[in-house]
Design brief:
The protein is of the alpha+beta class and 170 residues long. It contains three helices and nine strands. 22% of the residues lie in helices and 31% in strands. The strands form two sheets. Strands 3-2-1-8-9 form a five-stranded antiparallel sheet. It has a four-stranded antiparallel sheet with strand order 4-5-6-7, with no helix packed on it. Strand 8 and strand 9 form a beta hairpin.
Length: 170
């Protein structure tokens, strides 16, 4: 999509499957809006198996012209009509990412995702979590690093409070 930071983020979800002491929702829908460039809608259900045509599905991307289903061991591409156009099997999952990091440290192998890409991906997840915690949509300023605007309570989650003597020194 060629986007970095959202302009608005909203989160709907909760803990519906199990009533226990976990804080993380088991069902959610997060919408990241990027102004006139479009939006990303991310849905997750951690307590329900995927019942679609692809077992072992990790994540599905749906766009204007088709869908990509990423599995733990490769991916499948479908055109806009749902017809399979490509299937690639291969390694995947956490082991592949961990090995990439180890190879980068030991051998100087390029990382699959650089620090900026990782930061932008993580920030989008954090903004979704903040929206969930304050129970409303938050507005962000892409020109100011994605910071939340006009919402002091939400901005309170932007950084953590450290115990005296444990503050990071940069």
């Amino acid at each position: 999509m060629g986007v970095d930071l959202p302009t608005r983020v909203s989160y709907a979800g909760g803990r519906y499957r199990y009533q226990d002491d976990q804080e993380t929702p088991d069902t959610s829908a997060i919408t990241l809006e990027f102004g006139d460039k479009g939006m990303i809608n991310w849905r997750t259900t951690s307590c329900s198996p995927f019942s679609g045509v692809e077992s072992g599905t990790f994540v599905t991307f749906t766009g204007e012209n088709g869908t990509m289903v990423i599995k733990g061991s490769g991916y499948v591409l479908y055109d806009g009509a749902g017809k399979e156009v490509e299937r690639v099997d291969g390694p995947g999952g956490n082991d592949t990412h961990t090995q990439n990091l180890i190879d980068a440290i030991r051998n100087g192998t390029p990382l699959a995702a650089d620090a900026t890409t990782a930061h932008l991906s993580a920030l989008q997840c954090h903004l979704g979590n903040i929206s969930y915690r304050v129970d409303r949509r938050v507005k962000c300023d892409p020109a100011n690093g994605g910071r939340i605007v006009g919402d002091e309570e939400a901005m309170g989650f932007w950084k953590r409070e450290y115990e005296p003597g444990w503050e990071p020194v940069v």
